[in-house]
């Protein structure tokens, strides 16, 4: 196969990152008594939030809904490269593998979601659909980007605190 044919086959085998994905973990021996929703991405604060949410879910006997919202952080830096789509799909898949590996130690029920959209809206939608006790996210990453997001009103924590009808738990790194 030529390099172009290999590239075409790889592109045809890509899971379209735009298509919403749900991965269900193994069923626990007992039914969940409540639900928790946690946001997940590649940042340390997010990993701390997932670790905390897993501990809390275990203590409460909760079903844990883990949501990765595909956003600009997942995009490769060089959009004009031939393998941009593959690298984008690889980044989204890497997030899924990382979360599912962490969730593999959870004895209870869990589901992992990956989809594009507004993070605060999607976390709220999942929480409302499952009557979740709370939404758990990591604290702000800090720096210029976080300041800009807050200034533009695009801070996930700010949007959740002001618009979600569920308690929001911010977990520090």
From TrEMBL:
InterPro entries: Rossmann-like_a/b/a_fold (IPR014729), UspA (IPR006016)
Start and end residues of each UspA domain: 35-172
Pfam families, sorted: Usp
Domain of life per record: Bacteria
CDD domains with a match to the protein in the record: USP-like
SUPFAM superfamilies per record: Adenine nucleotide alpha hydrolases-like
Homology family: Belongs to the universal stress protein A family.
Name of the protein in its database record: Nucleotide-binding universal stress protein, UspA family
Species name: Rhodococcus koreensis
Lineage: Bacteria, Bacillati, Actinomycetota, Actinomycetes, Mycobacteriales
């Amino acid at each position: 196969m030529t390099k172009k044919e290999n590239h075409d086959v790889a592109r045809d085998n890509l899971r379209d990152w735009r298509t919403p994905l749900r991965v269900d973990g193994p069923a626990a021996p007992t039914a969940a008594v409540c639900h928790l929703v946690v946001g997940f991405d590649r940042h340390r604060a997010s990993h701390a939030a997932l670790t905390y949410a897993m501990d809390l879910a275990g203590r409460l006997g909760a079903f844990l809904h883990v949501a990765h919202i595909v956003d600009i952080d997942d995009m490769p830096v060089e959009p004009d490269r031939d393998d941009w789509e593959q690298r984008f799909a690889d980044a989204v898949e890497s997030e899924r593998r990382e979360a599912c590996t962490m969730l593999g130690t959870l004895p209870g029920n869990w589901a992992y979601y990956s989809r594009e959209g507004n993070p605060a809206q999607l976390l709220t939608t999942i929480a409302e659909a499952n009557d979740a006790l709370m939404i758990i996210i990591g604290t702000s990453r800090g720096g210029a980007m976080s300041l800009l997001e807050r200034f533009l009103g695009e801070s996930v924590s700010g949007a959740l605190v002001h618009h979600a009808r569920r308690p929001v738990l911010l977990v520090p790194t």
